[in-house]
Amino acid sequence: MRIISRFQDYYDRGMAHGADHARAFLRETFEYSEQSSTCPIPSHLAPLTELLKSDMSAGRASLSPFLIAFAGKLYPGVRCHVTGSAADAPPSQSSAEIVYDKESLFRFCVAHSIDLNKKGLFDRRTQAQRFQAFFDLRGTTTGAGPLTTEGIAIAVAVARRPGHVLVNPALKPFEFFRVFDAWQAYQELDMYLGSLAAPDTKPPVQVSDPDRIKQHGFDKQSFRKRPQCK
């Protein structure tokens, strides 16, 4: 698979191991917004924003969830951000960590006193339960079916920008290499785009020799000398 793009992403290195030039991925980036009259969010992208959780903050720490649809499956993540202690602290005193699993998120919350037992006004589940359900989306196709129908390989929705969906953005800023390394991500995309190009391709059915003989009208005596009646 060749990747045709105006920018480079971390998984482009997968092409160094050999690429099938008969197939190409035209990686053009688009941004859709609920507020835009020229680029409104299409119906096949709406499930991403519906599955996304809102931002959370406690003191100097904040959590900003995002949801990546990659090669037909979903991968939820959270950007964990901590600002400096003073209101005028320089950016150098700020730090951010991206996590793709609930264990890492819960450790961050404990370290920065974020209360995950707090319940929402309308959703009576605790924040811990909500994030548990959020991370349970990992590797599923929930809401990603319309993207496959439209042939979209990559889409990202970010809670910090509600109502916005990016199609085919760079994944390195999201540290997606924590989910797939360069070779794995390239292979996932290659197989996904290959399945879209040939959706009806199925492996041939293996038929055993005895069944094949029966299909041609023969039986177990066809190639033997039949016993003679005396």
Short descriptors:
seven-stranded antiparallel beta sheet; globular; 230 residues; two-stranded parallel sheet; 6 helices; 2 domains; alpha+beta; 23% helix
Q: What is the strand content?
A: 15-25%
Number of domains: 2
Mean pLDDT over the full residue set: 80
Q: Could you give the count of β-strands?
A: 9
Structure class = alpha+beta
Helix count, DSSP H or I runs of 4 or more residues: 6
End-to-end Cα distance: 71 Å
Q: Evaluate the radius of gyration.
A: 26 Å
Shape: globular
Return the string of H and E elements.
EEEHEEEEHHHEEHH
Low-pLDDT residue intervals, each spanning 5 or more residues:
85-93
Main pleated sheet? 7 strands, antiparallel
Helix percentage: 10-25%
Outline of this structure?
The chain has 230 residues and is α+β, with helices and mostly antiparallel strands.
Write the layout of secondary structure elements.
Blueprint: E1 2-5, E2 24-27, E3 30-33, H1 46-51, E4 56-58, E5 61-70, E6 73-82, E7 95-99, H2 102-111, H3 127-135, H4 145-149, E8 154-158, E9 164-167, H5 182-197, H6 209-215
Structure description:
There is one protein chain. With 230 residues, the protein is of the alpha+beta class. It has two domains: 1-26 and 181-230, no CATH class; 30-169, no CATH class. Helix content is 23%, strand content 21%. The protein contains six helices and nine strands; from the N terminus they run βββαββββαααββαα. Strands 3, 4, 5, 6, 7, 8 and 9 form a seven-stranded antiparallel β-sheet that branches. A two-stranded parallel sheet has the order 1-2. β5 and β6 (73-82) form a beta hairpin. The chain starts with a strand and ends in a 15-residue tail after the last helix.
